[in-house]
DNA sequence: TTCGACTATCGTCGATTTACGATTTGACGC
DNA sequence: GCGTCAAATCGTAAATCGACGATAGTCGAA
């Protein structure tokens, strides 16, 4: 998969309000979280499960079986590519802040 | 529009390889660029125009009429929201860099 | 004015996405 | 074994997206 496609895939994973909300929930939750997600987003269980599957396929989150439920957590590394790209768009020449990486990705 | 929807809209604007490619082209082009985009992405003119419209609607790029052609340029400010969100996902607790804005935009 | 180059818009088609209820799977306690 | 709860999967219908050709509009040059 080309870099463009990889970026598009990552962006597509974030391209839905329900998934943004899920990521916010994971971000705000220290440990694990399972079926509470369903109640929080206000969609049907099957729909939420589908969104979780999309996020998991994109590598943005990880699902770990923890007894009777599943423990979801963020996978920050997967977003490095997108974060770097967006940052490069934001500051094409003037790095107003955090310049550590010029444009490292390979 | 809620913050979640705004983020999803921004992400959706990036959720296509052709649009990623267009943004790369704009990033790599110092000044203006017009119909050269069509040749570079290898799609029909109408299709490219549609992608440009989507990017423009999302506020990611700006189109300025410059005589017979249109001058497209990146609009870094529009990406601040997305960049901030992705960065917060990348470093949920350890802000290795630039923490200035907790969640400023309204 | 007429021509040619460039861009935007319209209409349409097929593919993909989204959402839901219903069903199935898996893990636990009885 | 059996029932229960949580999660995933299946099947389906509505909505959206992506691509294209054809068309219309705009500008500068001849």
Question: What does this protein structure show overall?
Answer:
2 copies of one chain form a homodimer. Chain A is mainly alpha-helical and 106 residues long. The first copy, chain A, has a single domain, classed as Arc Repressor Mutant, subunit A (Orthogonal Bundle), CATH 1.10.10.10. Chain A is built from 5 helices and 2 strands. Chain A has a two-stranded antiparallel sheet with strand order 1-2. The C terminus of chain A is likely disordered.
Give the radius of gyration of chain A: 16 Å
The helix/strand order of chain A is HHHHEEH
Give the percentage of residues in beta strands of chain A. 5-15%
Unreliable stretches covering 5 or more consecutive residues of chain A: 93-106
Give the % helix of chain A: 40-55%
Keywords (chains A, B): DNA-binding, Transcription, Transcription regulation
Domain HTH arsR-type (chains A, B): 1-93
GO molecular function (chains A, B): DNA binding; DNA-binding transcription factor activity
Protein name (chains A, B): ArsR family transcriptional regulator
